[in-house]
Amino acid sequence: MIDYTEYLKIFVALVAIVNPIGAIPIYVSLTAEMTENDRKKMSFVVPVAVTIILLVSLFFGELILSLFGITINSFRVGGGILLLIISVSMLHAKTSATKQTKEEIQESESKDSVAIVPLATPLLAGPGAISSVILYSHKSVGALQYTLIVADILLLGLLLWTAFKLTPWISKNISKTGINIFTRIMGLILAAIAVEFIANGLKAV
């Protein structure tokens, strides 16, 4: 029997990791000098790229792990530690260096297009999101389970697209403090998910 609340949990986890609202200030700064048409194009390209990256991780992530001889339980512990590091940064309302380093920030400022790098990856579909999708895919044993995770990823892409389209309104009506509060809440949720990954991984190991 399918536990549909589990897939709601997966969606919440992905939202917490990707943190669409928390990414808006960075999105605004990277698109500040773009034309309106370029911003509209980017608001579409970024969610599509994030969706494709996570779908590829869903279907081929375990294959990549097997090629390197990495067990899913070891990866669960490693992925949990990575998520915990990201969550600590989020609790301080900061972008984790595991998502984007200072060098990547400086490099992005000189690029003509930042839709794929650094926005889509590693900022949104970064190591944390990719690791989580791979771990959740391990639980899926049938077409329906995979379809539900695909639906979660597509819904996440739609949420990202909506957040970017509403960026002008959000920037005007939600202060930096409000965005930081949202980021900290997402960080707390992510920390709990990370601890669960680590505990389950260690138990199995």
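The record above closes out task 2.4. Task 2.5 opens with a second protein, given below.
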Amino acid sequence: DDAESLWKLATHKLIKTRYALNLDGGDWIIDCFEERNAPLVIAEVELTSPSDRIEKPDWCYREITANKELSNVALAKKPISEWPIEDRLDSLLNSQ
């Protein structure tokens, strides 16, 4: 009940479905965004230490860790559907 009450009060909301994958080299979290952030999908891997090496799956396209525009907070405030198409492409294609 508390969570539902807080959700109603939130001015910025983010809706996504989260999936967990246990792959060799780490546990992955896959977020499939909905509504105004669809069809964005972001994957992250949970490492035990910063020095851990990962084997990036073929379906994993770009490293976006440093891209603050794609953080949950940023996407809640300014959903990707509100970005000009040029900004969407630039943010996704030019991330390291």
